[in-house]
Every structure is written in C-alpha cells, then in structure tokens.
DNA sequence: AACCGAAGCAACCGCCCACGA
DNA sequence: ATCGTGGGCGGTTGCTTCGGT
C-alpha cells in the first residue's frame, strides 16, 4: 500500500524546493518557538511557508534546532561513531542518539565522506568492520610480509623501497596501507613503538618463534588486543602507521579460531589469506566467515592465492606494480 | 586568473512503520 | 482487519566550496 507524497502539494500549488533562505528559517524558527512542533503537515501553512511539511521537519531537525552542535567531530565522537556503526550498521538515528547535538544526517554524511575512506585506508571493510578481502588492496601483502623476514633493526628493512615513486603508481588506499607497513617495518626496533607496533612485533615474533613450526595463537591474541580502539592511529597524521595490523587483529569479532596458524617451519613469508578462514574455522563458532588466516607458506588451494598468481603479484611481485 | 575535478554537505526522495479511525 | 495519515529513516542527488594545475 503506497501513500501519496507529502510534498506534492495541493493541485496547482507548487511548493518551493532547494536551499532555505534566512527569511524562511526565521519563519520556521519563530513559529516553532511560539507554537511548538505539532503537525508537520499543517505547519507550513500555519507558519506562512511555501514548503512541504517534510522539508520543514528536516530543516528544523538537521539545522535549526537550538541544541545542534556544529563544527568538526572530535576524536572521541569519531571513535564512538565507528564503534557504534560496527554494532548497529547504518542505523544513523540510533547512532545519533548516543552523540548529543549531532543529527543522523550529519553523522551519515561524515561517515560517507570521512570515516568510510579512513577505514578503507586502514584496510578495514567499512561495512563488516573486518579486514578488507579485495585483491586489489591485499595484493601487495605477501611480498611485504615476506620482506618482514629482513627485519632486524638494520635500517635497511625497507629494502630500498622508494615510497615517493610508489605513491605515483598505486591507488591512495593501497599506498596508505603500504606506507603503514613500511613504517612498521622500519620503526619496529624503536624503544617506544608507535601505535599498532605491538601488533606487528607480535606477528613477527609469533611467526619467527617457529620452534613448533606454527603460530602461538594465545600470544598473538594477547598482544593484538585492539583495546576498544584507544590505540587507533589517525590516518591524517603525518606519521604513517601500521594500522593494517590493528585492523587484522581487532577484537571486533575475531576469535582465536579465526586467527589460525598454518604449516611451515621457517617463520618467514608471512601471508594474510582472507579466503581460507571463513568456511573452515569460522563455522565452528557460528561466525559468518570472512576471517583471516595467518599463514607461513602459501596454501596450495586458496582462491586468493590463485588470484594473486594470476596477477603475478606473489613472492614479492608487488614491486611489479611499479612501471 | 581561470579552469577543472574532487570533496563536502544540505536537502530531497521514496519506502517503511506506527497508530488511529 | 483494513485503510489512510503522519512521521521517521536510509539512500541519493546536486549545489557549493576547495585545492591543484
């Protein structure tokens, strides 16, 4: 059962659309302050506005309401939005109830223009809040993680990577990811690790601690706690971060069964495979799949790695991205 | 200074739900 | 139980501003 659009107006009456003028704003504010909100459908006529009621309601709730907080979102607000979105999804009005003075429309816009890109840049899927699994973003990881084997604080861990050249040849999201990884690799020996470094060092330590030829899941999980996003690095910072590993190791639903070690004894050639975890490990605890597997060697039958091979990006071949 | 593409954001659109007659 | 209405919501559009060339 449909319903007639509220903004059609009566026959022959064309209601105004588009940006509100200061005069219209004043009419609306004056009326509501004097009479209260009441019926939005009747309000335009009573207030002397040639607008539909819906338009009046939106203008009031999103812009004219006296308790609206304008200006930039604070870091705390930003983190809260991300956290609430991971729990509620696109329930903007529900999210807005937790941020006094912010409207659902404002939060929605901020999400779409800022936070969504921010999460993408961190390698996190903004819909699922899990690590991204698209090949274009993850394609360079095998080579980079393999290069982690060179890590030893010698200062040459970047292997001569030319980041400025890299920036010219890869998309922004991938560059940010690679930048974070390089930073992590080159600063891991610093006395005070940057945010997210614990995760990388844990990863390396676990990967290299191959006495048993596998990962210590407990150690990995213990060191990779996201701690309620308190350590979430700002991507706008001039200092690159290893935020990718924050994403991988987030406590947002990843269980110990989803972080699973595989084969190999060398501890080198660490590989992130988004394709393996889902069906096997995740089904055990009822999660919906899409988890992350940290491998030491290339699994033979993963569609992810088959895809990488087809792109010629395996075994450090990410450098082929450079022309 | 002019142009152009990207980014940001206010506002609109259309669907859905709750509620009362 | 059905229908009409009002209000709310999420998605999308398009105008404005900004930044780079």
From TrEMBL:
Residues 16-64, 65-115 form the Myb-like domain. One of its GO terms (cellular component) is nucleus. InterPro entries: Homeodomain-like_sf, Myb_dom, Myb_TF_plants, SANT/Myb. It is found in: Nucleus. GO terms for molecular function: DNA binding. The keyword 4Fe-4S does not apply. Signal peptide: none annotated. SMART domains: SANT (SM00717). Residues 12-64, 65-119 form the HTH myb-type domain. It comes from the Eukaryota. Pfam families: Myb_DNA-binding (PF00249). Keywords: DNA-binding, Nucleus, Repeat, Transcription, Transcription regulation. This is Uncharacterized protein.
């Amino acid at each position: 059962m449909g319903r007639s659009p509220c903004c059609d107006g009566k026959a022959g009456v064309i209601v105004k659309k588009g940006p509100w003028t200061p005069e219209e704003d004043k009419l609306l504010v004056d009326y509501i302050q004097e009479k209260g909100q009441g019926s939005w459908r009747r309000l335009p006529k009573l207030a002397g506005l040639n607008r539909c009621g819906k338009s009046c309601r939106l203008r009031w709730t999103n812009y004219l309401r006296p308790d609206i907080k304008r200006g930039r979102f604070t870091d705390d607000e930003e983190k809260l939005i991300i956290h609430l979105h991971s729990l509620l999804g696109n329930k903007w009005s529900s999210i807005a109830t937790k941020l006094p003075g912010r409207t659902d429309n404002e939060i929605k816009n901020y999400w779409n223009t800022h936070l969504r890109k921010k999460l993408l840049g961190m390698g996190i899927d903004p819909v699922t809040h899990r690590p991204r699994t698209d090949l274009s973003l993850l394609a360079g990881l095998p080579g980079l993680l393999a290069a982690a084997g060179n890590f030893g604080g010698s200062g040459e861990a970047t292997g001569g990577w030319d980041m400025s050249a890299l920036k010219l040849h890869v998309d922004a999201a991938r560059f940010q990811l690679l930048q974070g990884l390089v930073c992590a690799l080159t600063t891991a020996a610093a006395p005070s690790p940057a945010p997210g470094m614990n995760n990388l060092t844990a990863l390396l330590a676990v990967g290299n601690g191959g006495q048993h030829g596998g990962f210590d899941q407990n150690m990995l999980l213990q060191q990779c706690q996201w701690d309620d996003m308190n350590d979430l690095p700002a991507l706008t910072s001039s200092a690159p971060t290893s935020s990718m590993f924050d994403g991988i190791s987030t406590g947002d639903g990843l269980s110990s069964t989803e972080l699973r070690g595989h084969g190999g004894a060398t501890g080198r050639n660490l590989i992130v495979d988004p394709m393996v975890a889902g069906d096997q490990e995740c089904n055990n605890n009822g999660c919906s799949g899409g988890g992350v597997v940290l491998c030491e060697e290339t699994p033979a039958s993963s569609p992810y790695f088959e895809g990488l091979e087809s792109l010629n990006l395996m075994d450090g071949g990410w450098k082929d991205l450079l022309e």
